[in-house]
């Protein structure tokens, strides 16, 4: 069981004094890995950002959000999701940023749509994203730079929702889950996704087979998944029997949903993410 946040906050100063968060040389490497779908492999791509050394490091699979239209999804072959990815690597993680089907140079078409606003299928969407995320995790755990027994799934927006679904499958080595503004179907920009009760039902279902602690960060001014919805979603997760430590951050940041991807957003989430990772034995 993860310690309460108050007990963990005292660890931050000790880690900083010990030099855990000092800057280090990093390596950026393009990668390819396979996803087996309907009897044939698809080639997915991604990026690894990791300390430039020969040690084995805990693995963080960092999953991007969703965007469109299709031509925009293909504009960049790979993403690195800096500064979040580099922050994690500087804190000792080997970070894998996969491009899911239909994004960048990865093969296949987008498989994780939740459907139209009137009849969304959030469970199916999450599990489709989880297929790609877990393919990246399996590849990463087999690498020489990885500690295969320390895997953390971290996802933003649609990638957060897919990471929740991925955690429900109890992948080997998984020790923690970080959900950054996770969700699907936030088309109305009201802070509430389409038919949001269905997402609560899906979250409860995912949680029933999840056995690791999770940190949930949402921003006060998130137009897609606002703080009231985030509280209901975390409650639905707990209803399924899993842990959810929810924090509403960035009260003064205008683009709440984008705070986790912005350079100026780091001070809003790092003070909460730091002790969580320290407590799981980073």
**Helix/strand-derived class?**
alpha/beta
Gyration radius over CA? 17 Å
Please tally the β strands and state the result. Answer: 8
Kindly report the spatial arrangement of strands forming the biggest sheet: 1-2-4-3-5-6-7-8
- How would you spell out the order of helices and strands? HEEEHHEHEHEHEHEH
Number of domains: 1
The CATH topology turns out to be Rossmann fold
Strand content: 15-25%
Morphology call: globular
Q: Looking at this structure, what is the CATH superfamily? A: Alpha/Beta hydrolase fold, catalytic domain
CATH architecture: 3-Layer(aba) Sandwich
CATH classification class = Alpha Beta
Poorly predicted regions: 1-22
Percent in helix:
25-40%
User: Helix count, per DSSP?
Assistant: 8
Mean pLDDT: 91
Largest sheet: 8 strands, mixed
The N- and C-terminal alpha carbons lie at a distance of 15 Å
In brief, what are we looking at here?
It is built from eight helices and eight strands, in the order H-E-E-E-H-H-E-H-E-H-E-H-E-H-E-H. It is α/β, with parallel strands linked by helices and 282 residues long.
